[in-house]
Design goal:
Layout lengths: L8 H4 L13 H8 L2 H13 L6 H6 L4 H6 L5 H14 L4 H25 L3 H8 L2 H34 L3 H16 L6 H26 L3 H8 L7 H14 L2 H12 L7 H40 L7 H12 L1 H34 L5 H18 L3 H27 L2 H4 L6 H26 L2
Helix pairs in contact: 6-13, 6-15, 6-19, 7-13, 7-14, 7-15, 7-19, 8-17, 9-10, 9-17, 9-18, 9-19, 10-17, 10-18, 11-15, 11-17, 13-19, 13-21, 14-17, 14-19, 16-17, 17-18, 19-21
């Protein structure tokens, strides 16, 4: 367990004087919102229980890691799969989004708990507990998944810049890389500024889709009837369902979330670790709940707009933007492009963070973040430069992600049920059974996709 006195709340006595609880001017409150020290002071005051605090103050210090992870659940790959699914099948695949979101909440809660209980990330535990040849295999497949992730994120941000400002895709991808560097640079000032910045991007995406839903005016009765009973009707619907699952349950943030919680608020006693995890559950529910609503809004907008109007063939994201203008007006099209850009920039930043955690955890290499960013840009640059259909590449990248889920999920379940690693935070039997059923469901769905695609 990490006992660094700089990070340990118990060693530093962050609650002394409870300065974080005094009234401040608006400017000072904003400054403290961005302060790691103020966040840690408030966390210690909450954990110690020495001073009664309102509920929102008790949870606010613990909010952040799940919001960073949740960005990956509404990245440009989600735009491609959700809009394609809504345009072709109407509301039929909405149940897939809802189920995927529940699965994501469970998985991210386990990942967060692993970091809190062990002080190590999932890649670090795999490196320490598995044979070296198996560790190398896990590392290579995780790097492939990270590249597929970056492909979706860079393509999405580049498309957003192209739609908003008319910048060609290749220069737009380069600009995306520069902007991602600038966002990542916030890490120099601590964990809080980056968490706040990522949460602001989520707010932009959510606001844009509130506008889209208000303009599209979906029919509630049609929405409910289309999902009952849950079904998949053909190979393309299975492909899109797997893509939605891959875009919602993201392997790289399974690795990342455990790293975000491993040293953020450190506690030595089992009781405090249990309390930190209880507060982290609020973070997961709020963040992933928001991501689920945004994903549902994407599909509902596509169903209410494109499917209802007869635009049911596979839509490129650029076609979706162009088609929105005559159907819902230029305001809706602009909101769509802004949401796509915000999604690409924020998720690209988080993808780079995850890539660093993967490399550092599996093989103990730490390379400069600039080099890491440049390397992960290469697949997107190749796709853009070669003239591939960017939207189809986005959907296929999400299918690739879905195949990587078991390699992150099975070790996660294995570690979190071990009492020798997790102590009192080890999974109970019911949690382990449910998580195992989830892993089996994902594996079977992928095998079914392969069978339907190559056999018939």
């Amino acid at each position: 367990m990490d006992s660094d006195p700089v990070r340990s709340l118990e060693n530093r006595g962050m609650a002394r004087g409870l300065k974080a609880l005094k009234p401040y001017s608006l400017k000072e409150r904003f400054r403290r919102l961005l302060s790691d020290k103020a966040t840690l002071q408030l966390a210690e005051a909450t954990l110690s229980g020495e001073t009664p605090l309102p509920f929102w103050k008790r949870i606010v210090a613990f909010l952040g890691p799940a919001f960073v992870a949740s960005v990956a659940y509404m990245d440009p790959g989600n735009f491609a799969t959700n809009i394609s699914g809504g345009a072709r099948y109407g509301y039929m695949l909405l149940w897939v989004i809802l189920l995927s979101n529940l699965i994501a909440m469970l998985i991210q809660a386990l990942s967060a708990k692993l970091g809190i209980a062990t002080g190590r990330s999932l890649p670090e535990l795999i490196r320490d507990e598995f044979p070296k040849p198996l560790v190398i295999f896990f590392w290579i497949q995780a790097e492939v998944i990270a590249m597929a992730t970056d492909l979706a994120e860079f393509l999405g941000a580049a498309l957003g810049l192209n739609l908003l400002l008319g910048i060609p895709l290749l220069p737009a991808a380069m600009i995306t890389g520069v902007l991602a560097f600038l966002i990542l640079d916030l890490e120099r000032y601590g964990f809080r500024p980056l968490e706040i910045a990522i949460t602001m991007f989520i707010g932009i995406i959510a606001f844009c889709y509130l506008i889209e839903i208000w303009l599209a005016r979906p029919n509630g009765m049609e929405l409910v009837m289309a999902m009952v009973p849950p079904r998949l009707t053909d190979t393309e619907s299975v492909l899109l369902a797997v893509g939605i699952l891959g875009a919602t349950v993201m392997p790289h943030v399974i690795y990342l979330h455990s790293a975000l919680t491993q040293g953020r608020i450190v506690a030595q006693s089992p009781e405090r670790r249990r309390r930190i995890f209880r507060f982290e559950l609020y973070d997961v529910i709020l963040a992933l709940g928001t991501a689920g609503l945004i994903n549902a809004a994407m599909l509902i907008m596509a169903a209410a707009t494109f499917h209802r109007s007869g635009y049911r063939e596979f839509l490129q994201l650029t076609d979706a933007y162009v088609t929105l203008q005559p159907l819902l007006g230029p305001f809706a099209a602009t909101a769509f492009a802004i949401a796509l850009l915000a999604s690409g920039l924020s998720s690209s930043t988080v993808g780079t963070m995850a890539g660093q955690i993967i490399m550092q955890g599996f093989v103990h290499w730490r390379i400069p973040i600039g080099i890491r960013r440049a390397v992960t840009m290469i697949p997107a640059i190749i796709v853009i430069g070669a003239g591939f259909d960017p939207t189809r590449a986005l959907v296929l990248s999400q299918v690739t992600l879905s195949f990587g889920i078991p390699f992150a999920l099975i070790p996660l379940i294995w570690f979190t049920q071990r009492r020798d690693l997790m102590g009192p935070l080890a999974n109970n039997r019911l949690t382990t059974i449910v998580a195992s059923i989830v892993a089996a469901f994902i594996i079977v769905l992928n095998l079914f996709l392969l069978y339907r695609t190559f056999v018939g």
